Request: fold
Amino acid sequence: MSDLTADAVATEHPGASPAGGNPTAPGGGRTVASAVPRSLVDRLAAGVTATAEPSVVETVAPLTGERLAGLPQSTPADVEVAFQLARRAQAAWAALPVRRRAAVLLRFHDLLLKRQDEALDLVQAETGKARLHAFEEVLAVAMAARHYGRAAQGYLKDRRRGGALPVLTHTVEARRPKGVIGHISPWNYPLELCVGDLLPAFVAGNAVVNKPDTQTALTGLWARELLIEAGLPADLWQVVIGDGPVIGPAVVEHADYVSFTGSTRTGREVAQRAAARLVGASLELGGKNAMLVLSDADVDAAAAGAVRACFSSAGQLCISIERLLVHRSVADRFLERFVSRTRALRLGGGLAYGADMGSLVSARQLDTTARHVEEAVKAGATVLTGGRARPDLGPYFYEPTVLDGVTPEMAVCGEETFGPVVSVYRFDTEEEAVSAANSTPYGLNSSVWTRDLRRGRAVAARLRTGTVNVNEAYAAAYGSVAAPMGGMGDSGLGRRHGADGILRFTEAQTIATQRLMPIAPSFGLDDEQFAAVLTGGLRALKALRFK
Ligand code: NAD
Reply:
């Protein structure tokens, strides 16, 4: 078992980062116990809605396997209390002008950037990811805070719409908050998928009852404290934690809208429960994302991009790439560069910048990763690099792995691994590549590499995924917070970011005011005359190009 003070260890050789980044020597010098002391855990745990004497579940720091925190577990009765408290706080919050609510997000933005080291320590301690990958969460949350802080008024303002009868009907579309959002989030991006997704819900006037994964609850609790410091009323964000299959359904049971991020299997269950109650749900689910390297790609850039695409957060990223589709004419050149960059990745567990990849989060993730690779190898796949666990670095480290010769009957071909494993496939025509990329029930993210940007966008338009990145792995589309992000097919329903990302937390309300005459026979017209007048009116409206 490694010590957290240990430097990052290159799988092959150290030096400049193969992902194209930080060339400095990795290091740390701080332990999880010093970065996340008992006093901090106790303070944050007090933010959980749980009965006076709750049962306590212990979490483990994935980097070392040492005990991290004891966290109080909520009961279904606590969930009910959380909804009552949230509901009470929501009415006053919704009555504030949007500008006042947006100001909280903008203050939060500044506080987060200032105190990002605290967030980075917690994310690393709870997930085991490299600091650079933890920083991506800070980046994503800050971008969402700025965007919704600045744009919420525009998204939420009343809009004049064409009335039933021009001049006579004055019609406005308004947006009302849903009420209390039930938000269920996974462990892999505990800052972004918790607070990042909640910012638009809050600014739209909602309260939230949030069930984070127990493993990563501290990060969300820390973000909650920071948002309260920025001006959010404390009761507006309730946190409940506990066993997913018990506490998750209790949250869905009381919510006015459900926002869920997690696996497709759980997402289906959540959707069914929400549907039975006739409440809406957005579902951000799994993927089996493909990257296409076209014949005219800049092979060096694509190789560096593929490293980011496949191994960020050790592949435990819903939008990371698990299938590399490479044009046969550039496959050898691409693979030589990609494999050598992958081999040079520095694995490490220091609470500092420098390592290129950290640990997996748990024994479960390690088992799935190892099983996918072992089964594939037994069935004839070749390991181009990686393919083994690294218990010398920490209990859940696994080397970044590139597989060749993967065939459809292997689990790694079609199932989401959610680990640092990518399979390489060669293609001859663009048609073949597009059809291979689309040959999965998932449809989350994809990436296309070409020197011809117009061609890249044309190929992108044919891919059945909610986001497509041209000449980038995932950060270009995910970071475009003004545009929607989410999945097609088994990858989900609904979108975060942009207009969709905030309007999902609202109900549309149409207020139409009728003036001067009713929409019914009047002024002495009988029914037939009224119908004739309106028929003429309809013809005139079309001729005048009314919409
Ligand atoms: P998971 O579905 O096991 O758990 C997600 C959350 O749901 C956790 O908080 C869990 O406790 C809770 N939960 C478990 N059972 C539940 C139930 N019956 N009812 C309600 N809630 C329940 O997923 P995971 O393993 O934590 O996360 C990894 C998965 O999430 C991967 O498939 C990944 O692709 C996906 N993911 C998707 C996105 C996206 O934006 N599309 C982002 C991150 C992760």
Remarks:
- The longest strand covers residues 169-177.
- The CA atoms of residues 509 and 545 lie 26 Å apart.
- The mean pLDDT is 94.
- The two ends are 68 Å apart (CA to CA).
